[in-house]
Each structure stands twice: as C-alpha cells, then as structure tokens.
Amino acid sequence: MLAYYLRLGLRSLRRNPILTTLMVLAIGFGVASSMTTYAVFRAVSGNPLPDKSSQLFAPQIDIWGPQSRTQGLNLPDALSYTDAMALMRARKARRQAAMYPVSYTAIPQDAASEPFAVSGYATYGDFFPMFEVPFIYGGGWDAGQDDAHTSVVVISNQLNRQLFAGANSVGRTVRLDDHDYRVIGVTADWNPRPRFYDLANNDGFTDPPDFFLPFTHAVDLQTETMGNNNCYGSAGRAPGWQGWLQSSCTWVSFWVELPDATAVRAYRDFLQGYEAEQNRAGRFHWPVYYTLLNLTQWMDYEKVVPPETRISLLLSLGFLLVCLVNTVGLMLAKFMRRAAEIGVRRALGASRREIWAQFLMEAAIVGISGGVIGVLFTGIGVLGIGLVFEPDIARLARIDVSLVALTLVCALVATLGAAFYPTWRAARVQPAWQLKSN
C-alpha cells in the first residue's frame, strides 16, 4: 500500500507543478535559513572538551571587595599574581595551571629569513595533560622544570613548519627576542573553539597560539602580559615590575582539574579558608566570596556565544514558521480541491486511515524534496555566512553529515506537521455530499 500511496502522491504533485514547486521552495528556504544559523550557533556554543569539561574549573576570588561589583555579584575573571602563586603553591588540585598571554619576535636560524612576531602563553607543565594537548613530537615539561625556571618551549605545528620545515625539532633551539629556548615538544594542530582557557583575553575564536613556555621563566624575564590587566583599587602601588606583581591587578588565568565531587567540595573549602586567611592577615576587609565554575559554566559566565547568533537563530526559526504557515495554506487548498476524488475513494471503501496515509505520503514527498533543496541552500548560506558574522566566527560553520541529516529530518518533520491539519480536513470529507453535488 505504501508503494501505491507513493504513486498517487507523485501523480498528484505532477498535476499541479507550480503549486508543488511553491511548497517545496517554501520548505527549502525555511529549513535552510534555520540550518545555516544553527551551523554557526553549534560551532560557537559547542563543548570544546566534552570528556573532561565537568572536571575542569576556573576559580574566582573577591580581591576588590563589594564596591567593585557593578553588575550583581560579578568577580574579576582573572587572578592577581599573588593569589595565583598562592594557589599554585598549595597544590590542592589534581592538576593546576596559571597562565597569561605573551608575545615575542621569533628569529629564524637562517639569516636570509626575516624575524616575525609570534604569540603564545606562559603557563605551567600541568597545562598539557589537563587540557589533553596532542603532540606530534616530544611533550610538555614537568613540575621540576617549572620550579627550576627552565628555558624550554613547546611550539605549534605551524611554527615548527615555519622554523624547521616540519621536521622533528625536539632538542633544537628557538630564539625568541634575545633568549634561546630548547624545544621539548611540538603540538598537533590544536586550538579548541572556543578557546575556553583564556576567555578573559579573547573572544574564544582567535588563531591558535604559536608556543608555550614556563610561567616562572617568563616572570624572571619580566615579560608583560599581552592580555587584559585590570587594576581596580591599585592606585599608589609600588612602581616597577615587583610593584605590579605585588599589586591587586588581575591578569593571570587559572584552571584546576578536580576529578570528582569530593575533590570539588575540598577545593571549595580550600578557597573559603584561603580568603578567610587573607581577611585575618588584613589584606581583605569584606565577607568571604568566591566562585568555582566548571568549563561550561565558565563559558556561560563569559558569554562566549555572541548575542547576534542567538538573535539570528530565533529570526530564522520565525522565518521557518512563516514558511510552514504558507505551506499549510497551500496544502489545504490543494487537498480540498480534490474533495470529489476523496468522496469517490471513500464511497468505494477507503477508510479515513487510508486517506490519512495517502495524503501524508504526498506531504512526505514534498518534505524530502524540500529537504534536498534546503541542503543546497544551506551550503550556499554557510559559504556566505561571513557577510553577516565576524570572519573568526563565520569560518567555524561547517557542512557535515550530521548537519545534512538534520536538515533532511527537519524538513520532513516540519512538512508532516504542516500537513496535519490539511490531511485531517481531507479525511473528514463526507462522501455522500460529494457524490450528490457531483
């Protein structure tokens, strides 16, 4: 019977090609607009580390007091050097890493090559296992090298290609500004989107870092941060580098890995005790307040998803709804024009269930056709998404198998939903009235 209904549906759609084309295009345009904006929304709101996101936490400490909170209970999204080093020394987490963005000039060994600017991070050795950084050569450094302030470096695959033509460069020397660093690892092409670990200094969708070097060594060289440096309430601090390190300026991002709920509770207790200790020492003069947000909570707090993507998604869903309303009208007109045919079929013994099946099959054909058109329009939309969104965000949108499948399913389900009322009206046709009037 399904094959029979399929033949009836195709025959009916061929009888009125203009109306059929309008329905298919309405579904195709509506679904394509939704899927195009969804492709962007999916890219910017995805979990960059799904297998560990529930174990990674960013602590915040109330270093400036209640008077600094202009919006609710917001705290600085970075730590001061004093607090970051206190948390590092305490080692209360399974892994912990302080970090800040730095920039140098890379000087190639080939004298014929021009120096060029590179950017990266000063961090601790736990950074690499904590964030599951992949390597193609070598690996990261250990805690002993952190404590020894060693001049080692981990470089990206891109920088390795620029300096060493992609060869295994472990053990070779890289010159950054006026200092030499021994390469101990080369990362694979790794740049989680959004770049969750440094949302205090970027929108999460910038180019990958070129290198990583020990935090302790960067501080020894008095390397200033290339990110934000917020110094609320730090007027009158001591001058120079040491004055900045001892001030209440916040510029250090900090992450910890806590494997289970017991570890999370213990670390919360530690943060509460740390702030209470600072109160007793006279450094803080306000009630203890801190937060400990996991990776996904941190992205929500930092508002990683641009508001224009949410607005565009809502608008596209509204456009899809308008297309479906128009499709309902077109189907209703088409089905009711065949009332005489329905009356004859009912008089010959067809049940209402069979009328339902016939017209839903016809709607399914329209939905699948609209889905195919929607896939084509979605591809065009993704290619042109840079006209609407920032380039760093637009280039994240991708057409893949899951998006194609979702487009087809969405088109089919939406069309069947739109066909529900017209099909119900068609199944309610009274055969006696139609036979008498015709």
From TrEMBL:
Domain ABC3 transporter permease C-terminal: 314-431
Major localization class: membrane
InterPro entries: ABC3_permease_C, MacB_PCD, Macrolide_Exporter_MacB
Domain MacB-like periplasmic core per the UniProt entry, residue ranges: 20-262
This protein's record includes keyword Ligase: no
Keywords tagged on the record: Cell membrane, Membrane, Transmembrane, Transmembrane helix
Transmembrane portions of the chain: 21-41, 313-335, 356-389, 401-421
Name of the protein described by the UniProt record: ABC transporter permease
